Amino acid sequence: MITIQVNGSSMEVAATATLQHVLDTLAIDTHGCAVAIDDNIVPRTTWASFTLTSHMNINVFQAIAGG
User: Any signal peptide, and if so, which residues (predicted)?
Assistant: First the structure.
C-alpha cells in the first residue's frame, strides 16, 4: 500500500493503483474535469496507465459554467 493525497485528503491505495482506478474508486465524475499530479496536468489519455507512487498530490478540477 502507498499513501497519496487527493484534493487534500490522505488515501491509501495499492502500490499498483492507476490514476483511473483512484478516480473510479472515489466515484468522481470525470466529465469536464482535469487532473493535476504534483502541479502538473495529466492528459486524460494516460489516466488508465498512469501508475501512482507514494506521496503524490492529486488535485481534481471540475469545469464550472457561468459568467
Answer: none
Q: Which CATH number fits domain 2-62: 3.10.20.30, 1.10.540.10, 3.40.50.300, 3.40.50.150?
A: 3.10.20.30
Pick from 28, 8, 10: nearest CA to 19? 28
Global confidence as pTM: 0.86
Element of type H or E holding 23: helix 19-25
- Give the tens place of pLDDT for each residue, 28-39: 888 889 999 999
